[in-house]
Every structure is written in C-alpha cells, then in structure tokens.
Specification:
Number of domains: 1
Distance between the termini: 30 Å
Radius of gyration: 17 Å
Strand content: 5-15%
Shape: globular
Helix content: 25-40%
Strand order of the largest sheet: 5-2-1-7-6
Number of helices: 6
Largest sheet: 5 strands, mixed
Order of helices and strands: EHEEEHHHEEEHH
C-alpha cells in the first residue's frame, strides 16, 4: 500500500521563491535532486526580487552551464563581482522594509565568501533560511537521478512524491499547477507604486513580514 503523505522532489535554488519554501515547510519529506542535468534559466541559479521600478532577477553566473553537466558539478564563476551587485540590489530594494536590519547580518556571508559549487552554495543558503524561519526539517539529497514521470508523481520507497524539479519555474509556461500553494497578499516594500507581486524570493517575504513569514507559508 502506498502511504498517503505530502512529499516533494525539488531542484536546488538560489534564495528560493516563496512557493519553494512553502513546500519545505508543509511537506513531510523533501528530496533535492543533485544528479539531474543542469536546467538553465531556472531558480537553480537565480532569484526574483522587487526593486523600485519592477522585478529584478539576480543571477549567479556559472561556468560552462549547459544541459550536459550535472547540477552537482556546476561551478560558480567570480569573473565579475556579482556578489556585490546582488547585495547592493537587495539593500536598495529592502533597506526600508521592517525586518531588513533584523536579518541581513545572517545573510552577509553569502555576499562575501566564495563557494566553489552552486549546489553547496544553495544548500548553505537554504540551511540559514530554514533557521531564520524556524523550519525544522531534514532535507535529503537524491542518491541517484530520479527519472521523471508524465504525471509528475513518483513512487520512492513506497511513498508518493510530487515532482516539482522543473514545475517551480520563473517562466509561467513551465510552471506546474500547485493547488497546495495559495497566494496571499502581504505588504511589500513598493506597494505604493507597484501592484502586489506573488512568489518572489523568500527574501521579499522575510524582510517584509519577519516572524510572520512562517504563518504565511
């Protein structure tokens, strides 16, 4: 008999979107895929924040990024000082938000230290985010490539997993319906000039809602 539980397979992600963190908080078991071929133009190496004139994508530049390289082998490049650019963009976007000063010190190492591999970098970010959100959950990395199924439901050790590796995606055309993720409005930094924008990076929720972020998820 298949156990009826909420279980999800996710890709790695850089300062993940709110939906991604909601999966981690609300699901019983989480597997992050490390043996997949790297997916370009995805949340694996990018995050969306809201700046004064609209949405900005923060992209971590990587070496030789193509679909033939495994995600676990993707290396970050530091040819440009992208860390300083990302930090300044985040600071500009959220320095006036209610909880920016409360959290930014915990996040500063990610804009200063140079991690070699994207997966390691993202996992360290995820660990800090989970601590800040008070999410106590064990994250498991895949031990081998998990073959996708047409219905996005995969049986692993007698448990059904919903496969969202490519379903949580910046491009609307690639997103998979997720009935469990309910979009709710909260007060964003530029509400006076911009309409509410859902599912930005978890940074947006964290800086704007602080300790209330967990109840939102």
């Amino acid at each position: 008999m298949i156990k009826s539980m909420n279980n999800t397979i996710l890709s790695t992600a850089y300062f993940p979107p709110i939906q991604y963190m909601s999966k981690i908080y609300r699901n019983e078991n989480i597997i992050i895929e490390k043996w997949e071929n790297f997916g370009k133009q995805s949340y694996r190496n990018r995050a969306k924040i809201m700046i004064s004139n609209g949405i900005m994508q923060l992209v971590v530049p990587v070496e030789k990024a193509n679909s033939k390289i495994l995600t676990k082998d993707i290396k970050i490049t530091y040819v440009t000082n992208w860390q300083k650019i990302h930090f300044r963009s985040i600071e500009s976007a959220y320095k006036n938000s209610p909880y920016y000063e409360y959290y930014i010190d915990e996040l500063m190492p990610f804009f200063e230290n140079k991690e070699k591999y994207l997966l390691d970098f993202n996992l360290k970010i995820l660990e800090v985010l989970m601590n800040l959100l008070d999410i106590k959950k064990e994250i498991v990395l895949s031990s081998d490539f998990i073959v996708p199924k047409a219905n996005n439901l995969i049986l692993i050790e007698n448990k059904k997993y919903y496969d969202l590796r490519n379903g949580i995606h910046p491009k609307i055309s690639k997103q998979i319906e997720d009935k469990d993720f309910i979009i709710k409005e909260y007060h964003q930094t530029f509400n006076d000039r911009m309409p509410f924008t859902p599912n930005l990076s978890i940074l947006d929720l964290l800086f704007c809602e602080g300790p209330n972020s967990l109840s939102y998820l």
